[in-house]
Amino acid sequence: MSGEAFAWRTGGCHCGAVRFEAALPAVVEAQSCNCSICEKTGFVHIIVPESRFRLARGEDSLTTYTFNTGVAKHLFCKVCGIKSFYRPRSNPDGWSVNARCLDDVEGLDIQIEAFDGRNWEAGAAALAHLSHDRA
Asked: Could you tell me the pTM of the whole model?
């Protein structure tokens, strides 16, 4: 990681069967997407590199849903149905963490920008850098 300070933040699903950790900077770039699945679930994306994500508990409690191209792996808790993170199509080398599933956002400046997921192909390349470790 670069000279930027990252802190490990915890989060998970509603029932607690699935728990994760993500290393986040104090200022977080996030996206609110209007695609068919995000709009219905209210998912707020914080995309992180593989190296800044850890599944702490619950791999056996996850179920996968795919649609369209099948590249994105939407992971839901089998117990409560919450999608607290997933492998996004835009960033298959990283993870998208749901900002709404973080345990504590105190001290985080989450800057949410609109992302036009209905026209995904036109804008997805602008997200690619988010799953790369900053040098």
From this structure: 0.91
Within-domain flag for 5: no
Q: What is the pLDDT of residues 21-58, one digit of tens each?
A: 999 999 999 999 999 999 999 999 999 999 999 999 99
Where in the sequence is the domain holding 39, given as residue range(s)? 26-131
> What SS3 state is found at 118?
helix
Rg (alpha carbons) of the chain, rounded to whole number: 14
The total domain count for the chain is 1
- How many Cα atoms occupy the beta-carbon half-sphere of 31 within 13 Å? 22
Low-confidence winner among 21-25, 79-83, 125-129 (lowest mean pLDDT): 125-129
Q: Which of 92, 105, 84, 89 is nearest to 19 (CA)?
A: 84
Q: Residue 94 maps to which CATH number?
A: 2.170.150.70
